[in-house]
Amino acid sequence: MAVALLSSLIWFVVSAVLFGRHLDYRRPRRPHRTVAKLGRVRREPPRQIPLLSRVCVICGRPLTNGESMRARVGSTCIKRYGPRYAHQVNPDHEVWVAEMVRARADQAERQARLNVEFDRATAAYPGLVAAWEAERASETGRLRRDARRRAAPMLVSSIAACLVSVVVAGFFG
After folding, report:
1. What is the phi/psi pair of residue 146, to 5°?
2. Which residues cross the membrane (predicted)?
3. Average pLDDT of span 144-162
4. Is 153 exposed, middle or buried, given 0-12, 13-18 or 19+ CB atoms closer than 10 A?
5. CA 12 to each of CA 2, 7, 59, 121, 150: distance values in angstroms, whole numbers, following the listed order
6. How many Cβ atoms from other residues are within 10 Å of residue 102's Cβ?
7. Can you tell me the distance from the alpha carbon of 132 to that of 135, in angstroms, rounded to the nearest whole number?
8. Partners of 55 in the beta sheet?
């Protein structure tokens, strides 16, 4: 069974190569503009973070509850005076802003390179189409198209032969 499978695989590869040799050249594709993606940047951290306190800002007693530390007031003082929330600037946000500026600069640089490549491809496109049309109009272009029409059934028959040899090898093997 392995020999049949190997021989059918070799036959398939050979016929695919022969078929591929006669492929008709396709019309060149019109260039498309590509947009550069922004590099990987972490999520934006909060601009401000709560200022925590370990002691009550009203009576000076130590705070143990996390919510009391954020409110900066103990549980008894908060009932009478209310919370005393305070915030400070998050230094991590400033680092994130610098990372974002670098990522945007890299994106702009990549976009400039992509624009240059697009402009080159757009300028070369009419010449590629003209060469393709000239090749199709030539005698070799006509011969290639005829060879492709003849080679397509050969590829289908080689695929069928591969499948039959595998099924036969599996049935009798």
Report:
1. -65, -40
2. 6-23, 151-172
3. 69
4. exposed
5. 15, 9, 88, 36, 17
6. 12
7. 5
8. 62
